[in-house]
Automatic annotation (TrEMBL):
Needed cofactors: Mg(2+)
Record key words, sorted: Cytoplasm, Glycosyltransferase, Magnesium, Metal-binding, Nucleotide-binding, Purine salvage, Transferase
UniProt-recorded name of the protein: Hypoxanthine phosphoribosyltransferase
Subcellular location: Cytoplasm
SUPFAM superfamilies: PRTase-like
Leader sequence segment: none
UniProt family annotation: Belongs to the purine/pyrimidine phosphoribosyltransferase family.
GO cellular component, one term: cytosol
UniProt superkingdom: Bacteria
Pfam annotation, one family: Pribosyltran
Recorded GO MF terms: guanine phosphoribosyltransferase activity; hypoxanthine phosphoribosyltransferase activity; magnesium ion binding; nucleotide binding
Originating organism: Syntrophotalea acetylenica (Pelobacter acetylenicus)
GO biological process, one term: guanine salvage
Length: 180
């Protein structure tokens, strides 16, 4: 298809296998808990959250939060809350679901925000984690794949709002960024 990224990093089958593994681990870790409260970070995590939540064997509730992502000219590490969750997370078992951890600033901001609300427990899950780019050390409890420092698209992740619906994860090269 013209305009599709050329280099596939993680294929559809591998993603589905890994999501099933993560779901099995999370289901067993939270087996004794009354209800898991999953918070998807919009927009990149929406497909991962949909698949992960459906593969769980435990009671769960879903909510979303939206944060500004860094763009051209933005101060590195500046995170802004765009839309908060609609539920009081106090005393809930919260699992933050992210698409990708890069510098760690987004997850760091979220953990501080949520800790102040006194949840019963607070853990983090990300589909992807970039190697060697973390600027703040954030604890990630569940990681789908560790990947190199490249721009990834597909399975919810975008470049300029394109490619989110690709069933696989692809690497976008800098010349593709310019021409697509
Ligand atoms: P942070 O640097 O705060 O850990 O990550 C900020 C956000 O930037 C991520 O949640 C994600 O939305 C976006 N991001 C970082 N790296 C990539 C990437 O390779 N591809 C895409 N599509 N988004 C990314
Ligand atoms: Mg994100
Ligand atoms: Mg984005």
């Amino acid at each position: 298809m013209p305009g599709s990224p050329r280099r596939i990093l993680i294929g559809e089958e591998a993603i589905h296998r890994r999501v099933a593994e993560l779901a099995a681990r999370i289901s067993s870790d939270y087996a004794a808990v009354e209800e898991l409260f999953m918070v998807g970070v919009l927009r990149g995590s929406y497909i991962f959250l949909a698949d992960l939540s459906r593969a769980l064997k435990i009671p769960r509730r879903i909510d979303f939060i939206a944060l500004s992502s860094y763009g051209k000219g933005a101060v590195s590490g500046a995170v802004r809350l765009i839309m908060d969750v609609r539920t009081d997370i106090t005393q809930r078992h919260v699992l933050i679901v992210e698409d990708i951890v890069d510098t760690g600033h987004t997850l760091d901001y979220l953990l501080r925000l949520f800790r102040a609300r006194k949840p019963a427990s607070l853990k983090t899950c990300t589909l992807l984690r970039k190697a060697g780019t973390m600027q703040v050390q954030v604890p990630v409890d569940y990681v789908g794949f560790d990947i190199p420092d490249v721009w990834t698209v597909g399975y919810g992740l975008d470049f300029a709002d394109k490619f989110r619906a690709l069933p696989y994860i692809a690497q976008l090269s800098s010349d593709e960024c310019e021409t697509l």
